[in-house]
């Protein structure tokens, strides 16, 4: 047990970190292009923030949180998502006093106690953005366009955008009553979870994955058909803006997100490269989240994507990020004190060349084999006789060409070669 990571968590090994770094570089690039600044919030928050922000009757809060009491008897929770934390930070740092909208992005681990399977983990990572202080429908279109353009820049093609409007507190009350009325007859035949949802959160019944529930509820009214005028106009304007951008989408009246804070626009992006866990991105508008957690009524909208899922989709689509270059130069020794090799290696590193050496007292032959395994392009050989003459051998492992270089000029020569090879 001590040599196994906890269930639902995983190590990201050196063979994978190239993909992660490529992804993160693209995140910074696209976020900057779209005008977002990075925010880093704590990994745990007061439990109350998620109870109120995400909603007590959601699966995330009622079943999936990692909650603990600290030594000061405070109830804390490992963040299951980023929106509530970023909203809390917006209020705590009085960002409503800054020029609006405030556009923030984040990358980091989230924690949900769910049944692990391919693409679903207990510790997973999200890239998300949040925009505060703007209710214009073009902001919704921009927040939807960002992940679409991002996925394309990663080399993904097979994904579909689903959009819906989940209304506002004004139209939702009436819808809820109508929904409950039309579910009344069949509630006994729904699954156990849906039977519980009937009273507390009937909208979530529409989102149940159980086939029988889906069949039984296929004709119940959707919120989309009962939007108030303001929500209907807003949704029409979001669609218009997406049309103007040339983005295609499916209007999915049954799209209900698993978090309670949403109002008006809700959307998800599915990848056809993945199996059951195909939602690679989800988001929407949350115009009352800030007031729910104790702030003024500032509108907001955002999305988050599951990084593991996006990487799985990239892998399935055969997207290869450029390989990490790794080590450029290996410094081998033959009958020379190891400290000499260390000195040369450190000088190269100082000149921004990725250099390494032997640390196990290997023979020259074994050092060459090791250098090959590292995949270095250049080899520096420090031989006893040459060293006495102030010289070293420099070999291009790709072409096999060799030259003798003075120790004084060695670093400069290697820098020039590495730069040329890039
Ligand atoms: P969410 O739909 O709960 O939304 O999560 C967003 C994305 O995170 C999902 O579409 C999925 O790709 C990934 N994800 C969720 N749970 C897991 C898991 N257990 N394992 C792997 N990946 C997972 C939110 O979290 C909202 N905060 C999004 C948002 C931001 N809405 C407005 N602003």
Could you characterize what this model shows?
- By secondary structure, the protein is α+β, with helices and mostly antiparallel strands.
- The protein has two domains: 14-168 and 228-316, BirA Bifunctional Protein, domain 2; 329-416, Anticodon-binding domain (Rossmann fold), CATH 3.40.50.
- Helix content is 39%, strand content 22%.
- It has helices spanning 14-33, 47-53, 59-63, 83-92, 137-153, 169-183, 192-200, 211-216, 229-244, 289-292, 307-316, 338-350, 364-374, 384-388, 407-421, and strands at residues 37-38, 44-46, 66-69, 75-78, 102-111, 123-132, 159-165, 250-251, 263-271, 279-285, 300-306, 329-334, 355-357, 378-383, 391-396, 402-406.
- The strands form three sheets. The chain has an eight-stranded mixed beta sheet, sandwiched between helices. Strands 13-12-14-15-16 form a five-stranded mixed beta sheet, sandwiched between helices.
- The chain binds histidyl-adenosine monophosphate.
- Histidyl-adenosine monophosphate binds at residues 81-83, 112, 114, 120-121, 124, 126, 128, 130, 258-259, 279-284, 302-306, 308-309.
């Amino acid at each position: 047990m001590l040599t196994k990571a906890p269930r639902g968590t995983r190590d990201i090994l050196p063979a994978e970190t190239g993909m992660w770094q490529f992804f993160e570089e693209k995140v910074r690039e696209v976020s900057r292009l779209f005008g977002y600044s990075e925010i880093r919030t704590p990994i745990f928050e007061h439990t109350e923030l998620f109870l109120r922000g995400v909603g007590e009757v959601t699966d995330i809060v009622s079943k999936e949180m990692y909650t603990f009491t600290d030594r000061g008897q405070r109830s804390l929770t490992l963040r299951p998502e980023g929106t509530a934390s970023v909203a809390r930070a917006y209020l705590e740092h009085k960002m409503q006093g800054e020029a609006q909208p405030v556009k923030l992005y984040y990358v980091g681990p989230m924690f949900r106690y769910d049944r692990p399977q391919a693409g679903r983990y207990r510790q997973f990572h999200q890239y998300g953005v949040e925009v505060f202080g703007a209710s214009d429908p073009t902001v919704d279109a921009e927040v939807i366009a960002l992940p679409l353009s991002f996925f394309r820049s990663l080399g993904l093609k097979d994904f579909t955008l689903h959009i819906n409007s989940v209304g506002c507190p004004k139209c939702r009350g009436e819808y809820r009553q109508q929904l409950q009325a039309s579910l009344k007859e069949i509630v006994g035949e729904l699954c156990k979870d849906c039977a519980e949802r009937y009273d507390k959160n009937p909208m979530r019944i529409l989102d149940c994955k159980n086939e029988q529930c889906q069949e039984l509820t296929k004709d119940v009214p959707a919120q989309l058909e009962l939007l108030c005028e303001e929500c209907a106009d807003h949704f029409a304007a979001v669609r218009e803006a997406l049309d103007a951008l040339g983005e295609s989408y499916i209007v999915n009246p049954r799209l209900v997100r698993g978090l309670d804070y949403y109002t008006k626009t809700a959307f998800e992006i599915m990848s056809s490269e993945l199996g059951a866990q195909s939602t690679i991105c989800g988001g929407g508008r949350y115009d009352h989240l800030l007031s729910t957690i104790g702030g003024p009524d500032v509108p907001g909208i955002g999305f988050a994507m599951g990084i593991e899922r996006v990487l799985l989709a990239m892998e399935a689509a055969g997207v290869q990020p450029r390989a990490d270059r790794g080590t450029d130069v290996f410094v081998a020794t033959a009958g020379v004190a190891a400290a000499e090799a260390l000195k040369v290696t450190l000088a190269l590193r100082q000149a921004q060349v990725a250099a390494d050496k032997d640390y196990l007292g290997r023979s020259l032959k074994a050092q060459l084999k090791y250098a090959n395994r590292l995949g270095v392009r250049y080899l520096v050989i420090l031989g006893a006789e040459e060293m006495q003459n102030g010289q070293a051998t420099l070999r291009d492992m790709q072409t096999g060409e060799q030259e003798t270089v003075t120790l004084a000029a060695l670093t400069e020569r290697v820098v020039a070669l590495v730069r040329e090879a890039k």
